[in-house]
């Protein structure tokens, strides 16, 4: 049986997680009836906050700073939700900032959070190795998530980008596809380079020649990907399948498919998105496992706060191919 969480206490007591957290941390101005009901739920469930994490602030309520590309990104929205739940479960606060994938803004956000005295930072960096290394403070515990960006001095939690992409393209090859397109902006992140390498690796091992016309490396947003996908799918020798290196690029492909009525083109997207299961056909994805990534990052941050001299960890989590339908389409006849 899993350990009860603050969510269970909130559900049992009938109060919000915020109210339960205030009772746990003995905040002032909480009604006695509320305190009694929450404590009764805690006793019934035998809920115990993690004492190690509660000690992180040295007697005061510690705060975790989280810096991501965008709070609107479905992937990072899940990451933030998990970190908030983990933090709330042990009586910690969370401050969230976004970089907008801008190096100057990233540095500003990190400095701002550090000045506010956060106990630690969880950061999805943006930029080259030197830029990122200079932006990350040495006097605050830091865990880097999602992408390494060449960082070697901080704990890192990421996924097997190259292997996940290899698995996706192998999946398409196994269904008979030999003309497989790729969309992904290689200059954006090292993760996208890894995903392209996985695409190339799967085709090479299958003896399939890489066709330059089927590789588009300039698109980053959905709006940028759309015209490139439209042009790729509208040609007489269009690909029978496409591997999109991120959900944003995948949405651009889906728009192009809809415009051209080309739902016969198989599609696998690296990264899940909220309505993937509602598409026709449902979208096959490489799950980046944001919950596991955020859980691991939080554990690493607690470890780093408790022991600043601990060995630096580079943790790589496996991805998961989720077959839903779009990636299982066979090439249309005559192709």
UniProtKB/TrEMBL annotation:
GO molecular function ontology, one term from the record: DNA-binding transcription factor activity
InterPro entries: HTH_LacI, LacI/GalR-like_sensor, Lambda_DNA-bd_dom_sf, Peripla_BP_I
Matching Gene3D superfamilies: 3.40.50.2300, lambda repressor-like DNA-binding domains (1.10.260.40)
Pfam families cross-referenced by the UniProt entry: LacI (PF00356), Peripla_BP_3 (PF13377)
PROSITE patterns (UniProt xref): HTH_LACI_2
Domain HTH lacI-type: 4-58
Keywords: DNA-binding, Transcription, Transcription regulation
Protein name, as recorded: LacI family transcriptional regulator
UniProt organism field: Phycicoccus duodecadis
């Amino acid at each position: 049986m899993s350990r009860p969480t603050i969510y269970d206490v909130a559900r049992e007591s009938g109060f919000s997680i915020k109210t339960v957290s205030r009772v746990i941390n003995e905040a002032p101005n909480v009604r006695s009836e509320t305190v009694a009901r929450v404590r009764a739920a805690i006793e019934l469930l035998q809920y115990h906050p993690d004492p190690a994490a509660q000690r992180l602030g040295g007697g005061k309520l510690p705060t975790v700073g989280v810096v991501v590309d965008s709070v609107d990104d479905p992937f990072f929205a899940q990451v933030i939700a998990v970190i908030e739940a983990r933090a709330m479960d042990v009586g910690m606060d969370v401050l969230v900032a976004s970089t907008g994938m801008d190096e100057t803004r990233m540095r500003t956000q990190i400095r701002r959070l550090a000045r506010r005295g956060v106990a630690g930072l969880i950061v999805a960096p943006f930029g080259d190795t030197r830029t990122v290394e200079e932006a990350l403070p040495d006097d605050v515990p830091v865990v880097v998530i999602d992408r390494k960006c060449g960082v070697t001095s901080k704990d890192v939690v990421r996924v097997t980008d190259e292997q996940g992409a290899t698995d996706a393209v192998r999946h398409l090859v196994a269904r008979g596809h030999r003309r497989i397109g790729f969309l992904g902006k290689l200059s954006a992140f090292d993760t996208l380079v890894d995903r392209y390498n996985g695409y190339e690796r799967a085709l090479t091992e299958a003896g399939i020649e890489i066709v330059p016309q089927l590789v588009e490396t300039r698109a980053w947003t959905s709006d940028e990907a759309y015209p490139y996908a439209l042009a790729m799918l509208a040609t007489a020798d269009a690909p029978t399948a496409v591997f999109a290196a991120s959900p944003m690029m995948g949405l651009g492909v889906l728009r192009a498919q809809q415009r051209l009525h080309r739902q016969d083109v198989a599609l696998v997207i690296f990264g899940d998105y909220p309505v993937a299961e509602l598409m026709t056909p449902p979208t096959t994805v490489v799950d980046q496992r944001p919950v596991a990534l955020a859980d691991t990052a939080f554990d690493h941050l607690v470890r780093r706060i408790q022991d600043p001299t601990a060995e630096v960890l580079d943790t790589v989590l496996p991805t998961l191919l989720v077959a839903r339908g779009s990636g299982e389409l066979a090439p249309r006849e005559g192709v």
